[in-house]
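Weekly puzzle thread! Below is a chain. First person to post its structure in token form gets bragging rights.
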Amino acid sequence: MENQDTHNPAKTTNTAPIDAGVIHFNQPELTGPGGYPTDISERLLRTFLTDIEDIGNSGGGFIPLEGMSDEGRNTVLTAENEIRFAAREHARIFTPFGLEVFRKSGTPEHVPVDARKLQGNIATHNHPLSTPPSLRDLVTGVLHHALEIRVCSPEFTYSVRFTGAVAGDIVNGWRLLDPLSYVAGQEWLRSQKEPVTPEILASRRLHAALMELARRELILYHREANVPL
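Winning reply:
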């Protein structure tokens, strides 16, 4: 499991705010990887901006750790509280009954897991930079039939379950939404009066992309705020 790569399409020298009502698809800010135009609608841009601005609980469609006993749920939450402030990534895998079947420590950006332990189980790990689950996290969970993928951090706890969508559909959705979230992120950044760190911007725009994946029913997604950013 690995932190999300902060993909940044080529920046433009145009710093004027985007007027979503008159967007032209050949604007440099709307080009994705390779310079190809990216289609974006006013609705999607505004939805992304709303999600980026939000720092509270978000998502829906499922209850994180649903189906676990109180004891099992408390076991997972206790483990997350032990690792959420760590400077390196740490992974734990639990059965739905709360039995720990795997643990591993990694680097600040990556922790390997035994994929054979994922099927039907809950995998959690920390992201030191407070970023949401990465595409690698999602694909690993889908391919190995995890019940739930979780990421804990000082600010948030993120939870993902799967809808039956295949990995390819999730990857294609991510590839579409990643550059769109970048556009919305730059629009939001220009509206801020105080400096914003790259980590906060990356976290917020990736959250917006995950929210849109959930709206498209490719995943079930929930974010719970521990403390405000």
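Puzzle host: Confirmed. Bonus trivia for everyone else. The chain has a mean pLDDT of 83.
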